């Protein structure tokens, strides 16, 4: 019997509830939201018959339960030794996903995701393939991008925001999205790097002990918090400037107000980064994603005009 499960009741078969727990449905929201932003931003540039509701729904399932779910299973498999110490109740160390069943689930779910993606079109397939590469590189030795805050957070931000936005636009447009959409998706994925950093303040001592070089470990808590704030704010400033330049001044002003409110909240976060990171994640990040949706509607109007 594995040392991971020595003291845990081991089932000869993986349980359905454990499989669902590994897929972590709570994490699906971010890529599904970004996919929705992409779909809305490209709606006016779609062919006259548009993309059917079913195709869009398939894309939403692809972004959340499939691609994001696959990335979560991959991460849990390669973190199983750490989880055995820190979270022994997780499905793998607890024995509810015995043997290599979680690894096989990761492979199967990745393959299923890619099959659905390529059925939705070549650009969707390419973007999803890149997302899967990033997901495996994030967790898998020897790359294990998550061991460095710059690389790991970038991989997650690109996959969950930029590629999900691009995929939504590609599904609806039926091909390569407009360059404006691609650039805005890129900007919001850059900003999402700062959002990912917010999750790194909760276990600084543990990361130091494990050799995980998050930004708080590399630069200290205060400096990392400042970096996160700047990384979140600067791309939004560029988006605002673009919206005004493209004639969407009302929505540009809306995004500016949302950013200004975030900056007010950032001051409170910076006063106590470790204590206020979860609070800012719930407040400031919500304003960030509202700005994403507002920008998506603006692009819809710009490209439709």
Main sheet record: none
User: CATH topology of the largest domain, which one?
Assistant: Tetracycline Repressor, domain 2
CATH class of the largest domain: Mainly Alpha
Going by CATH, what is the homologous superfamily of the largest domain? Answer: UbiA prenyltransferase
Class from helix and strand fractions: mainly alpha
Helix and strand sequence: HHHHHHHHHHHHHH
Mean pLDDT across the residues is: 91
Q: What is the CA-CA span between the terminal residues?
A: 65 Å
Query: How many distinct folded domains?
Result: 2
Question: How many beta-strand elements?
Answer: 0
Low-confidence stretches: 1-8
Count of runs of 4 or more consecutive helical residues = 14
Query: Beta-strand level of the residues, as a percent range?
Result: under 5%
CATH architecture of the largest domain: Orthogonal Bundle
Shape: globular
Percentage of residues in helical conformation: over 70%
Q: Report Rg.
A: 20 Å
What's the SSE blueprint?
Blueprint: H1 16-23, H2 29-42, H3 53-78, H4 80-86, H5 91-94, H6 101-119, H7 122-139, H8 149-173, H9 179-198, H10 204-210, H11 215-219, H12 221-245, H13 249-271, H14 273-304
Helix pairs in contact: 2-3, 2-8, 2-14, 3-6, 3-7, 3-8, 6-7, 7-8, 8-9, 9-12, 9-14, 12-13, 12-14, 13-14
Question: How is this structure best described in words?
Answer:
The chain has 2 domains: 14-177, Tetracycline Repressor, domain 2, CATH 1.10.357.140; 178-305. With 305 residues, the protein is an all-alpha fold. It has 14 helices and no strands. Helices cover 76% and strands 0% of the residues. Residues 1-8 have low confidence and may be disordered. Helix 2 (29-42) packs parallel to helix 14 (273-304) and helix 12 (221-245) packs antiparallel against helix 13 (249-271).
